[in-house]
Amino acid sequence: MSGIYLHIPFCKQACHYCDFHFSTSLKKKEAMVAMMAREIELRKDWFGSSTVIETIYFGGGTPSTLTIAELLFLMDSIYKYFKVVDQPEITLEANPDDLTPDYLHALAQTPVNRLSIGVQSFFEDDLRLMNRAHNAQEALACLQLATTLFDNISLDLIYGIPGLTNEKWIANIQTALQLGVPHISSYALTVEPKTALHSFVQKGIIPNPDDGQAQAQFLLLIDQLEAAGFVHYELSNFGKEGYFSKNNSAYWLGKPYLGIGPAAHSFNGVQRGWNISNNTKYIQALEAHVLPLELETLSLTDRYNEYVMTGLRTIWGVDLHRLETEFGPRFKSYFLQQAETHLEDHLLYIDGDIVRTTRKGKFLSDGIASDLFLLNL
Questions:
Q1: What is the pLDDT of residues 29-67, one digit of tens each?
Q2: Which residues are within 8 A (CB) of 84 and not within 5 positions of it... i.e. 6 or more apart?
Q3: Which residues contact 237 (CB under 8 A, 6 or more apart)?
Q4: What is the bridge-based pairing of β-strands 231-234 and 237-239?
Q5: Mean pLDDT, the chain, as a whole number?
Q6: What is the number of H-type helices and E-type strands within the chain?
Q7: Contact 115, 91 (CB under 8 A)
Q8: DSSP 166-230
């Protein structure tokens, strides 16, 4: 089973914290959609003949900038060139301001069966600080309607925002729970280079996000959501049973996927590929029937490092038996040797053959993983 990810590189306006590839000009949207369909056709052999597509994910950018006709056109292209399971998980990332009643009702008539809604906060001051295109009322209104039309909804929340008190953070979580959504993705606000937020922090306009505040709010998030019956199945993701993101779980479990669109990444088990991060060059290449793609073949060490990184972020952990059989005894002993300090510090624990992060270690999982990476062997 595999998945297809479509990167829709358009946004109405730039969020201050975002460093993803996107354009705020929609002038090339029609040409982009046409060339993404062409890339789907040109890459129909990426997985080999026996693979079946289980998930289709419209990410971005802001995929809800696409019309219903454009979404259907891209889905039809996938069905034309790939085998798809009877009931695939088809996710659309969307912003509340795009999810008007007309758009939501029309979307409910398409094969899209999962929405991932970029709420981020239910407080106006947070939304203004991040330069979100919607307001709190739009977020509530779209979710109240969306939950009557879609069963499988995820919403995004951001913690660690300067000025976000623990009381306000709990209120954000409780609002999400009262709306009855079965999945929440939540991230710490990070200051990425070349973003507006980075510039504001450097100029002293906005204070630098505080790591201690972010960690405290992360632990509050875990407590609140686990008490409400959510499973913390990946560092930033919480779902009720049966509502984990199949698309994202496939990434973390090392399943192959195909990325369509500028800046999209692909993986087929051995090779990783990435498309050019430039809308004009992407369109021009595909108009000439050339894939704007770079490929690298992953070494055993690369694959080990990726497995450690993704494993420690999830409830599935790192399987010592798999380390030995897939990578060899040297990798297993190196991993255990490097993990020793983190085990002593109660940041990691071993359950049978599985190594996982503790509650205390979850927030630090990426840093712990980097300590276990192999640079040269």
A1: 999 999 999 999 999 999 987 789 999 999 998 999 999
A2: 52, 53, 56, 78
A3: 183, 184, 185, 186, 244, 245, 248
A4: antiparallel
A5: 94
A6: 15, 15
A7: yes
A8: HHHHHHHHHHHHHTT-SEEEEEE----TTSHHHHHHHTTSSPPPPHHHHHHHHHHHHHHHHHTT-
